[in-house]
Amino acid sequence: MRLRSRPLVEWVVADARRLRFDAGSQLMVVDKGALSAVAVAGVAVHAACLAEAWRVLLEGGLLVSFSLGPPTAPPPFRQAEAQGAAFEVGPPVTVASSKAGESVLCYFARKVARGGPAGRGGCGAPPAGR
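^ that's the sequence the OP posted. Answer follows.
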């Protein structure tokens, strides 16, 4: 689905483990709560979703994930590495919610080549110049 106000953005409803995009075809993947929702299915499913996001991202592409989960339960980036994915992950950033008194966590993870600096975080936001 494309909105007239955002013609370059395509919103997709899909199984997060099997996206319809070609490998290395996307500059950015935005997750607004799906990773939090699949967390109840267990770490294996959660990590499979991260690995699929890694597959469709261009090298250097960015996964932005908004989570209502506690900071003690971040997305399982390390487990996704076991499935061949590698991300450079910054610490979560707290973002105010539209509901008074609530906030969400935002994770920024950049796709790196396998064997790259996975897990070594920056400041939690996209590195300068990107």
